[in-house]
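Batch queue: ligand-bound targets. Current item pairs a single chain with pyridoxal-5'-phosphate. No template structures supplied; prediction is de novo from sequence plus SMILES. Inputs echoed for audit trail.
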Amino acid sequence: MADLSAPPVPSDHIMGVYARTPLAFERGEGARLYTTDGDVYLDCMAGIAVTALGHSHPKLVQAVKDQADKLWHTSNIFTIPNQEKLATKLTDATFADVVFFTNSGTEAIECAIKTARKYHWAKGQPERIDIIGFDGSFHGRTLAAVNASGNASYLEGFGPPMPGFVHLPYGDHEALKAAIGPTTAAILIEPVQGEGGARALPDVCMRGLRQLCDEHGILLIYDEIQCGLGRTGKLFAYEWADAAPDIMAVAKALGGGFPVGACLATAEAARGMTPGSHGSTYGGNPLAMAVGLASLEELVKPELMDHVREVAGYFNQQLTGLKDRFPDVVLDIRGKGLLIGVKLATPNREFMQHARDEHLLIAGGGDNCVRLLPPLTLTLDEAREAVGMLERACETAQARLKASAT
Ligand SMILES: *Cc1c(COP(=O)(O)O)cnc(C)c1O
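Prediction returned. Tokens below.
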């Protein structure tokens, strides 16, 4: 078994912002990753909900190859035909009328925040700048995004908190009503929290948020960077509640591993975003758009959503069984679809190592959770295999508990 007390392997020339696992992969196929040492791992984290169609999906590989032969990059000062095509597909499939393409999730959030403030500015209410966010949220690592999430450990040392961001306890309706005032611009929320520990906002709360925003003339922004694009068994998580936002950030699965993000908005919400007000050198470039188109074409297939719900149902049933059998290890199963959180009684970092010892890759999460974020294409057989590995990881965690108690 791996030595849990071993420090992460330091690198001389990589900025030390990650405590990296000493595991390197050279090849992937579907839900399998192959290390440089020739070991095989079952991938139930998918690069944190990114490789939603699995590794080396033939259609995505082909899209990159074909586009790489033709044209990589021009500039957003020119028309990019595939950008218009992908924007049309995204708006056809959602509440939105317009799209701004980015290279990452945090840039999509950045665009969402700017769009919301500019909306009020364009309406003659420039004082409306406050973005209301919630405990346990994660919106990325730009300064605006860390200020929006309010997570103290991501803010520490980076200067004073920025004005214009308000943080509330998750699920406190009264606090939310009290916080809305004449300087409120928007509410920003993940319909299913990812990093925070796979907490799904109840449908009735989502509809409540929509109503509250309408009553006060403020905008509703969803961060569906992790929970969107099929992860919950619908193309977007908000569809479960039938409560559409005004603005939405997406990324992760959109490029299936190629960096593509997008900020979607209604025409009304985007009214302030006029020529010159925002931009990106790379965002929406021909290479990214070719992959985005190929990826979305797969993700919108109804049979894929049926599959996600079937595999998610299986996981939910099996993991609930593990919770019953290992009550000293597993405290709760949460999340939605294939964004699954397992809240643990034992340290989640240790449990991730136990899973890796079984050659299963899972992600960490807040609130001492581990997250299962498998490719949406994970087969039922692979899900069964993953459950077996998790069961053995639970046995290891249980045995360690017993050993430390004696
Ligand atoms: C990953 C993530 C982000 C940040 O995306 P990056 O591509 O890392 O910038 C923002 N919000 C949520 C919910 C995420 O899961």
